[in-house]
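> example.struct
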């Protein structure tokens, strides 16, 4: 599981040892411009800024693997989408994390920290990832 922020984390950021930690399960608004075809962020997708959930577990990496989020209600019946309630007052609405729409994003695309998913939701996301990436 992801751990909570500590005083040591803040000190490392202040000292310039790292620019930012990114934790598995965090939700950020990200610029996802550059998709092709049916990918989120393509020319057919009018919103190029969307919430994403960090799936990778490499806190200091300059790129992170994320699941793109959508508010489309049709995903409530999708076994590969997880409902993500988002905090009020952050300029975003509750969404579905589309685990089949994972991308690697440079952290410079992360625009605004929103919050984090519960440990229960993160476990659900991991299970779906294991299912869809299973290699025999």
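> example.seq
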């Amino acid at each position: 599981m992801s751990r909570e922020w500590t005083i040591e984390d803040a000190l490392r950021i202040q000292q310039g040892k790292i620019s930012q930690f990114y934790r598995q399960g965090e939700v950020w608004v990200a610029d996802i411009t550059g998709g092709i075809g049916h990918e989120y962020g393509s020319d057919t997708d009018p919103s190029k800024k969307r919430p994403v959930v960090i799936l990778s577990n490499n806190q200091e990496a300059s790129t992170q693997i994320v699941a793109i989020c959508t508010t489309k209600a049709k995903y409530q019946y999708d076994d590969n989408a997880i409902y993500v309630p988002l905090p009020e007052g952050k300029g975003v609405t509750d969404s579905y994390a589309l685990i089949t729409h994972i991308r690697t994003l440079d952290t410079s695309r992360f625009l605004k920290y929103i919050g984090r998913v519960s440990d229960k939701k993160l476990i659900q996301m991991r299970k779906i990832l294991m299912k869809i990436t299973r290699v025999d």
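> remarks
The first strand starts at residue 26 and ends at 31.
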